[in-house]
Design a protein that fits this description.
By secondary structure, the chain is mainly beta. The protein has four helices and 49 strands.
Length: 610
């Protein structure tokens, strides 16, 4: 009996399945080798795979399929054939931060042999990274793209506002569901931390798990990112667009059949359950070569199409439109096998819109959409005109505006000048005049005015000057004021900032520990850091040696001359230590800040000691 052949047969049919869901390899860091499938390196868009030899195999098929929700196999992302003795390859074109099932099948010529060893692996997450930037644009671009380590599976954005000034930080992080939603602690973070000017103090954190998803300042909207691809000869339709809970399906054009998983759900963590699309392949059974067919019908971008037999003779296609759209043309069309033409006329879906508002007589509009349902338009007039009517209109589902379209009329002094942030205004009638008004400008606390302090409006005329701006009050920068010490300020050198001073090792603070920025000056003078030194050792009738002289933490060792000795219980090792505030109270400013740890002992004669 040939035991070698038996052993080879057992090895060729053995199965080894290891799941590594929820983890990924750090960039450029190899996995450990175990089993028949070895994950050598894991990056954001590729995985390097190695595997053991299967006896009798002449080639191998290595592929990666999406691993959906930790329990089922999705569509294939990539597949590679390997011939000969090659038993490693790199699977590329993968999506960052996604789980894939790696499968390997051995073949002897055209016949599969052995088992199908497999392993689940997660590709690395990719995020934008920056630290305490004031503008979100500074955090974007290729230089800020970062491939996360294996233990970071999400992107984090942190936005902190302090008196209207933002500080934006982006980095890789571990996923925390409580930071992944639009509503946190009962409030909408996209409202609390977006925009400028009106926000004074706020701090928001948002997490997301898609590729480079933290590009926007506050990535917390309850919607998935628009990243579902549409392969050739297919189109996508969704129940609720990109909103959380929306279900999207891939459809194939008439004459093609779908191969793979067709459904993808926008999950609560705002990622799509399936990201790799299925295939749309030609259906030879539906279209025999000798049959006369009608040209394939394509659905309108705002509608759906369903056909009983594709584009074969006798096929009946039905069209319908999405909500907020009207259908024009034939709702049902049939394929004529004699003429190879469809009955009826082309069906189109026209989006319901409100009437176009013309900008005339100075009227200016700013709309969120092109007069579509739900679109909101804001209106304004030039300074020498007055807005007559509603300042904001909404396009309703009936195709009409929520109110009459406004106009620009003759001005009067009831319209106050537009104000910049942090500007306060008080208006009254012009003294000793029957008509007209005057307004006085001032700034909120912590700001100083830059521009006119008053403006006038006479009947029928515009205001004489625009609103001034308010700049934040600043004091002299304290950052370089303290030698041998440290300065920590709550808001740099801006009004209201509190700076705390401390000293380094071997130095003691002399002066006030805190100072607050007021109107261009600090509440207290900046302190100084004075070196801690101890007095010279005097009146000692012996020998001593100090490792650092009189400086802080210096240690002095004392000894007596021959024939002399120390009294009992005295300390012959002294250290220079700093005095307490109580010890320094009442002493002059130039007093030494250090003292010896114990009193200087005295050397006495041996007979005197006895």
């Amino acid at each position: 009996m040939n035991f070698g052949r038996i052993l080879g047969a057992i090895l060729s049919i053995s199965t080894f399945v290891i799941f590594l869901s929820g983890t990924s390899g750090q960039s450029g860091r190899p996995y450990g080798n175990s089993g028949e499938v070895n994950i050598l390196f894991v990056r954001a868009t590729s995985v390097e795979v190695g595997f053991n030899y299967v006896q009798g195999a002449t080639m191998y098929y290595v592929n990666a399929r999406e691993w959906v929700d930790g329990k089922k196999v999705g569509n294939q992302a990539i597949g590679i054939w390997l011939h000969g003795r090659k038993r490693s390859t790199t699977l590329g074109n993968l999506n960052p931060g996604r789980e894939y099932l790696i499968r390997i099948q051995a073949y002897a010529k055209d016949r599969p042999i052995g088992s199908r060893p497999q392993k689940v692996v997660r590709t690395s997450q990719q995020c934008y990274t920056c630290n305490a930037m004031s503008d979100n644009e500074q955090c974007k671009g290729p230089d800020n793209e970062f491939e996360c380590s294996y233990d970071k599976d999400a992107c984090l954005n942190e936005v902190r506002y302090s008196k209207g000034v933002p500080k934006i930080t982006k980095r890789c992080s571990q996923w925390r569901p409580e930071l992944g939603g639009q509503i946190q602690n009962g409030s909408d973070v996209t409202v609390a931390c977006s925009g400028r000017g009106k926000i004074t103090d706020a701090a928001c954190r948002c997490m997301c798990r898609s590729n480079l998803c933290n590009e926007v300042e506050v990535p917390c909207l309850n919607e998935c990112f628009k990243e579902l691809p549409s392969p050739d000869n297919s189109y996508i339709r969704c129940t609720k667009g990109e909103q959380v809970g929306s279900v999207c399906w891939w459809y194939c054009m008439p004459g093609y059949k779908l191969k793979g998983t067709s459904e993808s759900v926008c999950r609560r963590d705002r990622t799509w359950s399936v990201l790799n699309p299925p295939e749309c392949v030609g259906d030879d059974h539906v279209h025999p070569p000798c049959e006369f067919r009608c040209p394939p019908l394509e659905p309108d971008e705002n509608g759906l199409i369903s056909c009983t037999k594709g584009n074969r003779p006798g096929s009946v296609c039905t069209f319908r439109c999405y909500p907020n759209s009207r259908l024009h043309g034939s709702t049902v069309r049939e394929c004529d096998g004699v003429t190879s033409k469809w009955s009826g006329i082309r069906a189109t879906c026209e989006e319901i819109t409100c009437s176009v508002i013309e900008e005339r007589d100075g009227l200016t509009k700013h709309c969120t959409g092109k007069e579509t349902i739900g679109s909101v338009c804001d209106f304004s007039c030039p300074k020498n005109k007055k807005l007559l009517g509603s300042r904001r209109l909404t396009c309703q589902a009936t195709g009409s505006w929520s109110a009459t379209i406004p106009k620009c009329g003759e001005p009067d002094c009831s319209i106050l000048p537009s104000l910049f942030p942090n500007v306060i205004t008080e208006c009254s009638r012009i003294p000793n005049r029957g008509t007209g008004r005057m307004c006085s400008f001032s700034c909120e606390e912590g700001y100083e005015i830059d521009g006119p302090t008053r403006t006038f409006c006479y009947e029928g005329n515009s205001w004489t000057s625009n609103s001034p701006t308010c700049r934040r009050i600043r004091c002299q920068s304290p950052l370089l004021s303290l030698r041998n010490g440290f300065v920590r300020c709550s808001e740099r050198d801006y009004y209201g900032s509190v700076c705390t001073f401390s000293c380094g090792n071997g130095y003691m603070l002399r002066g006030s520990q805190n100072s607050t920025c007021g109107f261009k000056r600090w509440s207290d003078e900046f302190p100084i850091c004075k070196a801690i030194r101890c007095p010279l050792i005097r009146h000692f009738n012996g020998l001593y040696s100090c490792n650092r002289g009189q400086n802080f933490r210096s240690i002095c060792r004392l000894s007596c001359l021959r024939g002399f000795g120390f009294e009992e219980g005295v300390n012959t090792r002294l250290q220079c230590v700093g005095k307490t505030e109580e010890e320094l109270e009442g002493w002059p400013e130039n007093a030494m800040l250090g003292r010896w740890s114990s009193r200087v002992p005295r050397c006495v004669g041996m007979q005197e000691k006895l």
